[in-house]
């Protein structure tokens, strides 16, 4: 058993309510994690700068829709270049008011039997670790299913209306879930204990928090601090939110909602300037070392908006958008299927298997090339961003003291010519993908949706 002290301080989280506690001794609560650690320390954990995240929609990843089927195909993810496997919710799905969403959690400490067993998850994690890949779980902390045991055992854990009825998340249409009340210390304590359960019992390496902007700062700052003490290794925490104080709370990453919107606008309009402005605004109030996870698709937007091919002008445009989302002071993110150009939308409310016979492995090879250069470039991972976008060309450098990377992407479906800024045209550039010298007279011709990446 490991005993952790979590100080739920009396602070006011910006935009949220005041956090209080029940303890009389220096506002400190004692949380006991009554578990034994399963598995060995993962010694090849990627740093937060090195992470390349692959999201697995378990019921879409294979015909079987199981954890074992994911395990059997981890080499596909490894060969792509990813080193973090992000599993969508693995927990039993609520049946009351259900729409089939895995984000309606009936039990925080069980595996959905349709997906497999605890032993299956352990095998998946062990196999991923043997391939030098971390595993993070999707966590739904804001709300539970209506048939979660807390509904009847602890109705005080939930927000209620004036008549004492438990409510769904306010100002949403999430009628299949019930809103938790984070002013209650017992809710925070129970949630952190449930998170710890998976670290101890399956040896996973972190969490992606769904709807992260919905919970208060203190829950994260204290909870993440406690979770990081469990294993003698680094862990990764991703907030599906864009509050910049998530970094202060202990998260490694926030989510690029606005960047995704600006990316779509850039490719739809053929105008590059808005994307650069969006990126600079997002980073205006965070530390130089902070990074935002950016994407061209994920389970939400694939289901609602369409595939990258549909959104960005076909496969060439989808590849170009992925370069930007991976290189522009970003952490790369891949949703299963996009790496093989799968052009069918996927639901996550019911099984919807990818037809891998439709996979385009030329696209896969292109993704491998894009990700391999990112993984071997300190400038892309940790460098300083400078933007030079103009017209239809998104252009920028990522720079350290030893390397400069110049990225030029035509976001328009027509030919264009880009004039390099003074000081960049005479640099001894090398093509990032071919390794050949890249020479220019000061201008660069770009075909529709072409991307050119050079470095020195």
Automatic annotation (TrEMBL):
Keywords: Signal. PANTHER family: ALPHA-1,4-GLUCAN:MALTOSE-1-PHOSPHATE MALTOSYLTRANSFERASE (PTHR47786), GLYCOSYL HYDROLASE FAMILY 13 CATALYTIC DOMAIN-CONTAINING PROTEIN (PTHR47786:SF2). Residues 1-23 form the signal peptide. InterPro entries: GH (IPR017853), GH13_cat_dom (IPR006047), Glyco_hydro_b (IPR013780), Malt_amylase-like_C (IPR032091). This is Alpha-amylase. Residues 55-374 form the Glycosyl hydrolase family 13 catalytic domain.
């Amino acid at each position: 058993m490991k005993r952790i002290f979590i100080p739920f301080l009396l602070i006011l989280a910006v935009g949220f309510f005041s956090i209080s506690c029940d303890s009389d001794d220096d506002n400190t609560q004692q949380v006991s994690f009554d578990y034994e650690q399963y598995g060995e320390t993962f010694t090849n954990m990627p740093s937060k700068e090195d992470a390349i995240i692959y999201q697995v929609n378990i019921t879409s990843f294979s015909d079987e829709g199981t954890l074992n089927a994911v395990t059997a195909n981890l080499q596909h993810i490894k060969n792509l270049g990813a080193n973090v496997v992000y599993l969508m919710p693995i927990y039993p799905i609520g049946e009351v008011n259900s729409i089939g969403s895995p984000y309606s959690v009936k039990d925080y400490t069980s595996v959905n039997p349709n997906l497999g067993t605890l032993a299956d998850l352990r095998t998946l994690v062990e196999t991923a670790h043997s391939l030098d890949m971390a595993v993070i779980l999707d966590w739904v902390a804001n709300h539970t299913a209506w048939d979660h045991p807390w509904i009847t055992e602890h109705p005080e854990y939930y927000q209620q209306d004036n008549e004492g009825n438990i409510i769904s998340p306010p100002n949403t249409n999430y009628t299949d879930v019930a809103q938790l009340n984070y002013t209650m210390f017992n809710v925070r304590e129970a949630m952190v204990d449930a998170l710890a359960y998976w670290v101890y019992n399956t040896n996973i390496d972190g969490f992606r928090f769904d709807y992260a902007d919905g919970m208060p700062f203190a829950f994260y700052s204290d909870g993440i601090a406690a979770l990081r003490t469990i294993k003698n290794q680094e862990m990764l925490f991703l907030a599906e939110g864009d509050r910049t104080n998530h970094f202060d709370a202990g998260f490694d990453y926030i989510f690029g909602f606005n960047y995704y919107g600006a990316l779509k606008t850039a490719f739809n309009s053929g105008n590059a300037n808005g994307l650069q402005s969006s990126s600079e605004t997002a980073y205006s109030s965070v530390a130089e070392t902070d990074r935002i996870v950016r994407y061209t698709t994920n389970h939400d937007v694939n289901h609602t908006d369409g595939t990258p091919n549909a959104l960005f002008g076909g496969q060439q445009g989808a590849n170009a958008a992925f370069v930007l989302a991976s290189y522009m002071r970003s952490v790369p993110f891949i949703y299963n299927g996009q790496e093989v150009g799968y052009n069918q939308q996927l639901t996550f409310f019911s099984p919807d298997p990818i037809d891998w016979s439709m996979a385009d492995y030329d696209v896969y090879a292109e993704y491998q090339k894009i990700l391999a250069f990112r993984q071997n470039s300190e400038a892309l991972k940790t460098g300083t961003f400078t933007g030079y976008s103009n017209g239809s060309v998104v252009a920028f450098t990522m720079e350290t003291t030893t390397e400069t990377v110049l990225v030029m992407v035509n976001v328009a479906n027509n030919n264009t010519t880009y004039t390099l800024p003074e000081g960049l045209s005479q640099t001894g550039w090398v093509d990032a993908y071919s390794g050949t010298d890249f020479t220019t007279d000061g201008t660069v011709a770009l075909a529709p949706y072409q991307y050119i990446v050079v470095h020195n």
